[in-house]
Description:
This protein has 79 residues and is an alpha+beta fold. Helix content is 34%, strand content 30%. It has helices at 30-43, 58-64, 72-77; strands at residues 8-15, 20-27, 48-55. The relative contact order is 0.22.
Amino acid sequence: MEYASVMKYYVVAYDRRAGRTVSESVHVDRAEAVRARSLVQAASPRGTEVVILGATSKEALHKTHARYYESAGKLASSM
Length: 79
């Protein structure tokens, strides 16, 4: 029997100036992720991008949204 993977919602705060992820939390409930995003956004300094990303695993998230986890140089060299 095959089970469907459960979608998780990752709230990621990304410092655009520094080019790095500064915080991340995971939620199984989308509404909770939306609330968490609002709180993180309110507490974040200007220049911080706060997003909700859906993925079935952290590995999948890193593949589909690598810009939040890899340096610009590493991303450019992989193209």
